[in-house]
Here is the input.
Amino acid sequence: MLTIDGLVAGYGLGDILKGVDLRLDRGTITCIIGPNGAGKSTVLKAVSGLLTPRVGSISFDGEPIGGLSPRRVLERGIVHVPQERSLFPKMTVFENVLMGAHLLRDRREVQRRAEAVAERFPIVGERRGERAGSLSGGQQKIVEIARATMVQPRLMLMDEPSMGLDPKARHLVFETVTRLNAEGQTILLVEQNARAGLQIADRGVVMDTGRVALEGPAATLLGDPNVAALYLGGHVDRAAPPPALTGSAPDAALPPA
Amino acid sequence: MTALLQVEGLSKGFGGVRAVDDCSFGVSEGTMTALIGPNGSGKTTVFNLVTGYLSADAGVVRFAGAPVRSPDPMRLYRLGLTRTFQQARVFARLSVRDNLIAAIPHRRRSFLRTRFTPADMSRAEEVLGEFGLLGLADALASELSFGQRKLLEFATVLMSRPRLVLLDEPTSGVNPTMVATMERHIRELNAQGLTFLIVEHDMNLVMRLCDPVIVLDHGAKIMEGAPSEVQVDPRVLDAYLGA
Here is the structure.
């Protein structure tokens, strides 16, 4: 459904992604894990149009989407739930959900969808009139996910939905994610908590310094000692040699001091 | 071995978050000790507390056997404890050489009456030479690459002839050549007796350079040991991979 080939992208002079290949099947949860700075969030940003690929291609259902504006990507049915809290804290929970469909012109359709979301996500129904900022971190994250479903996305990108949450809240958020998936939602998830992320995923992708270092069924990766080696140093047996370096390191153009 | 730096029961909260929570560890003289831990485990906050950039809610820091009461960066610098930052802090509008000279600690109270001695100048030249910066001595720090700025910052903290240097991610964002250069300087200075406490995300570098490795999680030490022990310790794996 989503195909990324040889993706190079970054900020300023440096490339964060140095040739990423990734394939996503419809109806699955794919979880990207990896140490700090590996480029996990950057992959999501490139897919959702927040970052333009420098090299490589991204295609969605056979059509190229690399370099499209975030709005166009959203119109194709890809929605991005960002890492940081993104609800409007002074608006009510229900108003936030309505905002999720700002692309739609048909107000009655927006209302209808929002009511459906309120039924589908109990927290939205129960707390609909309360200010979003008064909800706990975990509840806010669930409302964010609920809001993202307003566009009836074909693919949801979720960037570390469990960040900053205690284990109980994390469990609730992950429960929401798995339930969405059980209803057919395709999800590309980035997780800092590698084990928790892999436990709910079908496939896992382990990134390291801008490349895919390992990938496979999530259950296999859970027991793979190479994953720990990527986090804590040590030897990694790569199944295939890493793709050629197509980008340049930030200082590469300058002579070494 | 004597602990050059001893941290006991250090705590610091930001709002409801306990960034550092009853943290205790020691750094033995002559070591290259690493301080690692997952994102948000409190490494940089520990650095800021130890070097006086933040004040602790509780706890004691001892340097060279004496408790440091209300740590102050300048006073610690004179005592021989200094640090670098993730984003190198150098004077952008000064030349490389002047950055080094400005880092010389002076006993005189009045900044305006500060005099630099010929010895200071030759010390600056010596450090420039050691760091291969002679060719850039008259360049403005603002003209340097990110990696070169980090190297310059590293060089400047040596002007005080410190006993302990805290390095906050010395190789993040720098190219592989510069990583090798940094590593070489750290090793050489350590061989001359300088003690290091290093926060670093490049685990391959940490594991080949440092011993012991101290692991933080949720603001407290969960483990300390040789790299080979740390890499297989279940508590460390839980911290990094999630439980």
Q: What stands out?
A: The CA atoms of residues 22 and 29 of chain A lie 13 Å apart. The first strand of chain A starts at residue 2 and ends at 9. The beta strands of chain A are 2-9, 17-24, 29-33, 55-60, 63-64, 78-81, 155-159, 186-190, 203-208, 211-217.
